[in-house]
Amino acid sequence: MYKLREVKYEDYEAIKLLTNNKENIHLHENVSYMDKDFFDRMLLNESIRWYAVEKDAQLHAFILFELDVPNKIIHINRFTIDAEYKDKGLDEHLYSKVERLAERKSFIKMQTEISTSEVDVYDFFESKGWVNASNESYVFIMNK
Known about the structure:
There is one protein chain. By secondary structure, this protein is of the alpha+beta class. Helices cover 29% and strands 33% of the residues. The chain starts with a strand and ends with a strand.
């Protein structure tokens, strides 16, 4: 059974492995490697939310996003799925968590940048109603 939960300090190695594996599904073709300083800064940042999906105590996906509360915007920074779990619905599981939070907190927009050759990433966001705003920038306007 899959479990959605917040990322914690003990997850560093698992998050690093997911991030650093180029075979996994990422928002960006050239995803930057996960280092400990970045990981620690993200966990301490009050505006950052970080969720992971685990099965049998192993992480298989995560989403990292920032809440811009004054402007009511969510920016998705990282969205990574283990390639072996690509068609298991983990992307839906994580995305619905962000979308529910956005609705509950009355956010008006979600945005991200996508720069990958993985067509499924674009298809996923476009199937949710996201539009290509410019170059690599994708946006989703809430409650439209």
